[in-house]
Design brief:
single chain; 350 residues; alpha/beta; Rossmann fold; OB fold (Dihydrolipoamide Acetyltransferase, E2P); five-stranded parallel sheet; five-stranded mixed beta barrel; 13 helices
Length: 350
């Protein structure tokens, strides 16, 4: 800080000495010294305010000053026909020389951030909003839920369906297996439904990569070329694409995020549908398709039972709930009473 004070003091002394030596006012040394001190004070005050200014603002101010002076000179030259002896013309020249450089300095300093390389490059880019591309996988088209998501407005941008995905759908739709044939036809119907939606941009891309034979790797290559995202239900494609730096929208993950939270200790009623993999387990399903594994419920297959949730396992493929029966003895007694009441119910006359 002391160094700055010394420099400013030396600067002020030099300006005052110069004013006295030149002597704008003849025979008035004190008046010349006062003029020099005033000029030095103005420059020192300006410098102190510019001390914390950004470099881009300073460059912008200097550039604006140069542009303002150039415009002022051009305007002054264009007024060659005016009477320079007229006070009005001289005043006009003075205003032009003062106002235009001033406006250049002010505007250049305010817009100096555009001299930063990152922002300067944006001046030559397209000002329109950059379109986002979503590349649809075969699995998500066959699944069909993507159409409901698009119709609800939760998936924007251009939906890209590569030609090789259409070929795969057609191959599935022509399969001799009735189940596969129905799945393929449903996928084609889903695409047709989305094409008829208002405001939905469906693009059939002819981009192909003959050197790549695997369909999943082709999808990744298409997403990389478009700087887009992959919409899929395939767990393996999900992992490989993310390892390659591609953003993935997994419909199953979205569905899991929308499912109501189930905490250990909560009680629910389920219908035991089949036997589980482990010994004496029963398997049930909630309305949203969540699998519920119940311990010691093999004997309750085909019955409604009350369970207490013991744990919840969340995976990329879905959610699994593990539980145990609330009171197996009470459940058996209730089931026996239900069976007895059904047997004692009178037959309905035909």
């Amino acid at each position: 800080m002391s160094g700055y004070l010394i420099v400013r003091a030396v600067f002020g002394i030099l300006v005052v000495y110069t004013a006295i030596a030149i002597g704008p006012f003849d025979g008035q040394p004190w008046l010349n010294a006062g003029l020099g001190a005033t000029v030095a004070a103005v420059f020192i005050l300006t410098e102190s305010h510019l001390h914390d200014a950004a470099v881009t603002s300073l460059l912008g101010g200097l550039l604006g000053l140069g542009v303002g002076l150039a415009i002022a000179r051009t305007v002054g030259t264009a007024l060659f026909w005016a009477d320079l002896d007229s006070p009005g013309v001289r005043f006009l020249h003075g205003v032009i020389v003062i106002v235009l450089p001033y406006l250049g300095v002010v505007l250049g300093a305010r817009k100096g951030e555009w001299l930063e390389p990152a922002k300067f490059a944006t001046l030559f880019r397209d000002a329109r909003v950059e379109k986002r591309y979503r590349v649809l996988d075969t699995s998500v088209v066959i699944d069909g839920r993507v159409a409901d998501i698009v119709e609800a407005g939760f998936l924007d941008g251009a939906l890209v369906v590569p030609q090789f995905v259409l070929q795969e759908l057609q191959h599935v739709a022509d399969s001799p297996d009735p189940l596969r044939r129905n799945r393929g036809r449903r996928g084609l119907d889903v695409l047709h439904r989305m094409q008829k939606m208002a405001g939905v941009d469906i693009q059939i891309s002819d981009v192909d990569f003959p050197d790549i034979r695997d369909v999943d790797m082709k999808l990744i290559a298409v997403a990389q070329s478009l700087l887009g995202q992959i919409v899929t239900n395939d767990v393996n494609l999900n992992k490989v694409a993310r390892l390659r730096g591609i953003d993935v929208l997994n419909i199953n993950e979205l569905a899991n995020a929308l499912k109501p939270a189930v905490l250990p200790g909560e009680q629910m009623a389920v219908f035991v549908l089949k036997e589980g993999k482990e010994h004496n387990q029963g398997v049930a399903y909630l309305d949203d398709g969540t699998m519920v594994v119940v311990d010691n419920a093999r004997s309750r297959i085909g019955r409604n039972i009350d369970i207490i949730v013991t744990s919840v396992l969340q995976t990329t493929a879905g959610r699994m709930i593990f539980g145990r029966q609330v009171d197996p003895l009470a459940a058996d007694a209730r089931a026996d009473r239900d069976d007895q009441s059904r047997r004692n119910r009178p037959a309905t006359p035909a």
